[in-house]
Design brief:
single chain; disordered N terminus; globular; mainly alpha; ABC transporter involved in vitamin B12 uptake, BtuC; two-stranded antiparallel sheet; 19 helices
Length: 399
């Protein structure tokens, strides 16, 4: 939430204001032939990355068991605006097949999110997953930077908020606002090194930094509680009711996803795409590719920290497991399952993964193998992701 206040200043400080990018980014889009038809982002498909899905897998289940009064949710999704255009906001008002396809994808995305969020109070976990996946998509799709360690920023945001309460004695509201800044600072440090590499080397460096962060949190008993984590991280009195905290999480998630989408459709977003598609040409027309990628890394880390802070206060406790590589793999699966080539991909992927995870855990003892098999089947059937397949199907039917 503090991200929406800090980012405009940070962008201006770097000299990356929209006006500074207008000419260069506009020329880059035309020169590089950016593939932005019907919301299709260039970049790798679902077969670019692979990983084993593992972890404790109890998040969605715990959220459901701890939720009370689920019947009160009712039409909450529609009431707050999870309507036809979904969490990522309105579609471009383009005409013809392009505009219709994007708007139809927005309808599909909004209905899926609203239906699942209304089903139970585990919707808080769903909203956290959506924000986490969208922040990872921000650098993977338009940025072209594959990260194997995105859970580090999720965990830094959670621990930042928790430590502010435990050691600084700040109110919960202030901790929720300031906690994600710890993730932003970590992204500034790690991102400075990561953007100097590309491809597999960049991905492995993100994994290395994430493992270092996890090890520090796991072993620093006096500060982080070590393997026991930190407890007693409950919301303020006016948010103690689950329904009240749900509305706060919904507002934070919607605002954050909308802001990330706004950045991607702004000149800065097109500068990211230019640096991804042809770094040499982008540099030739005046775009500082490394600086753009670094700032994109910081933005993604900051919003992952927002998701982490929301998670901490929804559970009341945190442990080093939230920084583990398995959580990063979950984020990758969400993005790839939804589709890395469309803006709605991380939202659809997070909803699908969370729902599948919850259903499989409830119905089988061997849920890890079952969930992995289902995801493998979906990836083989829909190599462009669920949202990518739906977008392509809509385009074909309207031509």
């Amino acid at each position: 939430m503090a991200a929406t206040l800090v980012l405009p200043w940070f962008v201006e400080m770097w000299g990356l204001t929209p006006l500074g990018f207008d000419a260069a980014a506009g020329f880059a889009v035309g020169e590089l032939g950016a593939q932005e038809v019907a919301g299709v982002e260039g970049g790798g498909g679902a077969d670019d990355l692979a990983g084993d899905v593992e972890g404790d897998g109890e998040t969605a289940l715990e959220g459901r068991l701890r939720a009370q009064g689920a019947q009160q949710v009712g039409d909450s999704g529609q009431a707050v605006g999870l309507g036809p255009q979904g969490l990522v906001g309105g579609a471009p008002q383009g005409g013809g097949a392009v505009g219709h396809a994007f708007r139809a994808a927005g309808h599909f995305e909004g209905r899926v999110v609203a239906a699942v969020a209304q089903a139970e109070f585990g919707g808080i976990d769903l909203l956290v997953a959506v924000l986490f996946a969208t922040s990872l998509y921000f650098i993977m799709g338009p940025g072209g930077m594959h990260s194997f360690g995105h859970a580090a920023y999720f965990g830094l945001g959670a621990y930042g908020a928790a430590l502010l309460i435990r050691h600084a004695g700040v109110p919960m509201e202030a901790a929720l606002l300031l906690g994600p800044l710890a993730a932003g600072l970590g992204a500034i440090l790690f991102g400075w090194f990561c953007v100097r590499l590309s491809g597999v080397y960049l991905a492995m460096l993100t994994l290395a930094f994430a493992q270092i962060t996890w090890a520090v949190v796991f072993q620093w008993d006096t500060l982080t509680g070590g393997s026991n984590g930190l407890t007693g991280l409950w919301p303020a009195q006016w948010l103690s009711d689950k329904q009240s905290y749900y509305w706060l999480a919904l507002m934070a998630a919607v605002m954050s996803v909308w802001y990330l989408r706004h950045i991607l459709l702004a000149p800065f977003g097109y500068a990211m795409r230019a640096g991804r598609d042809s770094p040499l040409r982008a540099e030739a027309i005046g775009i500082d590719v490394k600086r753009v990628q670094w700032l994109a890394f910081v933005i993604a880390g900051l919003f992952a920290g927002v998701a982490g802070a929301l998670y901490a206060f929804s559970k009341g406790s945190i442990s080093p497991d939230i920084l583990h590589v398995s959580h990063s793999v979950d984020g990758l699966v969400m993005v790839l399952l939804g589709g890395i080539q469309v803006l709605a991909g991380p939202v659809v992927g997070a909803v699908s993964f969370t729902w599948l995870h919850d259903v499989v855990v409830r119905h089988t003892e061997y849920w890890r193998a079952t969930l992995g098999g289902v995801i493998l089947l979906l990836v083989l059937l829909f190599p462009q992701g669920l949202a990518g397949f739906a977008s392509g199907l809509i385009r074909r039917t309207r031509v």
